[in-house]
Amino acid sequence: MTPNPLRWMSFPVERGADWTKTALLAYSGDAATKTGLAIYIYAITEDMKTAHAFSSLDGDMLIIPQSGTIDVQTEMGNLLVRQNEIAMIPRGVRHRVTLPYGPSRGFICELFQGHFRLPELGPIGSCSLANIRDFQVPVAAFDGKLQAGRALGNDRSWTIISRLGGNLFSCTQDHTPFDVAAWNGTFYPFKYDLARFCVLGNTLYDHADPSLFTVLTAPSYREPGTAVVDFAIIPPRWNVMEDTYWLPYYHRNTMAEFSGAIITRQDPDCPWNQGLEFQPYGAALNSGMACHGANSDAHRAAEEQETTPKKVQTEGFTIFLLETECPLWVSDWAVEWKDVLKTREANAKPRL
């Protein structure tokens, strides 16, 4: 745990990795006591093995692809999660991930405490931010075959890989875990297209707090306005404030802030969609009360720019934020890789 801002310009990529090969980046709390959360990254080039399924027994998994498409087969049906979409897989729900269009990379926020929900809109009213009607839920899909008019789901052995306490365990069973022909209930996998998010913003002066861009939240209920984690995005939008400063002021947050990029340019020719490298950068972490904001070049540009209405954040990527009231511990792996990047950067500089 450190008060210093951290930034990873890239992450190491393991060729031949599938959905079970995620890397822990940061965490807080403990799955055993149902407190806090964990943040993982994934960079996969392979489908999960035939007759293999995965589940997290630690928490609900919010999947945030940076690039690429994943096909998620769950016990309750299938979800095709495309670029600029997110998905949530509830704790304990078994699923299998395949790659219909090539490699994919992204982030997973695993929530140990509570569940993701829409934020309270209060005076904002309806038809703002993320709307219930735009979330998509899978339809039951029986993964078996009919034999003599009867459903058969135990035609081969399956391996079930589960994460518990951050460790992986496996067992086998003689039937498919995807043998549900129908289901009901109120807690289920879902996906959401971030392009449907209705952005709100300031129309007279100053810059909106990032909480106004919250897509999903997991309230801590310690006191009003606190959250185990808020998932927010800073997407393409219009700025219309005249004669005012458009950038967020240099600031300190009471919450720890983890950020990354979601590629919105989906054409295959986009350089950010090539390969598995995290682009345009890896991720950043600002601990609670750590000073951060625009750099001096961006500040000068904001001072000198015309402030007539225009579209902003059109570079082909959206910034996402995971803001949490929990101080985040950085994993040993992430610290070691940060040191490797620092050494590479130092070696790349010309020596005088």
UniProtKB/TrEMBL annotation:
GO CC annotation terms, alphabetical: cytoplasm
Domain Homogentisate 1,2-dioxygenase C-terminal: 196-339
Residue positions of the active site: 207 (proton acceptor)
Domain of life: Eukaryota
Enzyme class: oxidoreductase
Entry keyword set: Dioxygenase, Iron, Metal-binding, Oxidoreductase
Organism encoding this protein: Cladophialophora psammophila CBS 110553
EC number(s) stated in the UniProt entry for this protein: 1.13.11.5
Binding site for Fe cation: 251, 257, 292
Gene3D superfamilies in alphabetical order: Jelly Rolls (2.60.120.10)
GO annotation, biological process: L-phenylalanine catabolic process; tyrosine metabolic process
Residues involved in homogentisate binding: 292
Name of the molecule in the record: homogentisate 1,2-dioxygenase
UniProt keyword Cell membrane, yes or no: no
GO molecular function list: homogentisate 1,2-dioxygenase activity; metal ion binding
Pfam families per UniProt: HgmA_C (PF04209), HgmA_N (PF20510)
Segments forming domain Homogentisate 1,2-dioxygenase N-terminal: 2-194
